[in-house]
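Quick check before the chapter quiz. The format below is the same one you will see on the exam, so make sure you can read both the input and the output lines.
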Amino acid sequence: MPAGTVCDVPTILLATDADWILEEVDASLADASTNVYRVRAGIDVLEAITQLNPDLVIIDEQIGNMGGIATCMAIRNAEGMDAIPITAVLMLLDRAHDVFQVQRCDADGYLVKPLDSLRIRKAADALLAGESYADPINLASGDAAGLAFQG
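Here is the expected output.
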């Protein structure tokens, strides 16, 4: 059973200061079988992981005061020191060209904005199943295409 799961109810931690992202993620994932919690600052993510023990952390790349990439790196560093349990991380990117940053911070998957419920659910389901997820985009154009994630 994954770390934060109680009776197979996944816990998802969302790190964003944008209300519209909370609304999209909440509408896509929160239901009787999934709990979604939010922090507004990257600096609060490690403490929230300690308290909630989430199955998945979703991080907005442009979260204020500590960017999403730095937040993901802090998670991986804390995991490496056994300070927190290993947690799946999904990055929400502003541009397709930021995929290389996801690979550098060792995130498990990514989505490129604008978001939609189907892609959010598909990515979350993959990461909750222990898989990686790459948004099917073309780096040159930002349009949908097959792009393999090398995470």
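If your answer matched, good. Residues 11-134 form a domain with the Rossmann fold fold (CATH 3.40.50.2300).
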